[in-house]
Amino acid sequence: MVAVADWPAGQPPLKLLLLSDIHVAGPDMPPERLVKIVVQLNRLRPDLVLIAGDLVSEKRSATHIYTAAEVVAPLGKLRAPLGVVVAPGNHDHWFKPDALRGELEQRGLRVLQNEAVKLGPLIIGGVDDDYSGHDDVPATLAAMDRLGPGVPLLLTHSPDIIPDAKRLVAAIFAGHTHCGQIRFPFVGALTYVSRYGDRFACGDMTDNGQRVFVGSGLGTSLLPLRYLTPPDAWLVTLGPKSVTP
């Protein structure tokens, strides 16, 4: 639960579903598997779905690389009253970013690349990928400001943008780290692909007063293997802060 001090009066709490690092590719994440996952996720009945990038994988170990249409088609079946918002990841930029964005928008999914959108009481800023050098946090915050009052959220692929967000928002949602993807007992993960090491490794955390959610992701990168880092999706409730008499 994320308690928001200035939650709009009369607005019921909202359930936000965070997905990240889907990495559609053979053998471990073919579109057919993603279809089944989407069916399960829809049963959670989220009000809004946030996808923190890396829809695709072009890893050398892949047994099959799918087209942009094949990657996106299952995501078009996600159901949420406030819709689905996507911030691209580094693999999306290395693949076919224009094709992916076109397929997403054709199916009604919103793509935010240093842009913002107001959905219900929420103002969502989508920061483009930091790892591949496409991020612009100041432009994203300015776009949010132009939308007027609302509950501010940031969606980004890499959590490395968090120190650059110079003001607090209700929550920041990210992915990219895979929680290390392969972790060894007593040793831990070899890398979180972050210049901050394990500072934003994964999970629900508070960093310098900022509430942050970093998903472990659904798929894999480099190798079609996870060890001690199960895939996940986060269902986060936003609502009013309780007033203590």
| Whole-angstrom Rg | 17 Å
The chain-level structural class is alpha/beta
- CATH topology-level fold name: Purple Acid Phosphatase, chain A, domain 2
Count of the domains: 1
Describe this structure in words.
The protein is α/β, with parallel strands linked by helices and 245 residues long. It has a single domain, classed as Metallo-dependent phosphatases (Purple Acid Phosphatase, chain A, domain 2, 4-Layer Sandwich), CATH 3.60.21. It contains five helices and 14 strands. A six-stranded mixed β-sheet has the order 1-14-2-3-4-5, with helices on one face. The protein is globular. It comes from Sphingopyxis bauzanensis.
Blueprint (SSEs and pairs):
Elements: E1 2-4, E2 14-19, H1 31-42, E3 48-51, H2 68-72, E4 84-86, H3 90-94, H4 97-106, E5 110-111, E6 115-119, E7 122-127, H5 137-145, E8 151-156, E9 171-174, E10 183-184, E11 188-189, E12 203-207, E13 210-214, E14 234-240
Parallel strand pairs: 1-14, 2-3, 3-4, 4-5, 7-8, 8-9, 9-13
Antiparallel strand pairs: 2-14, 6-7, 10-11, 12-13
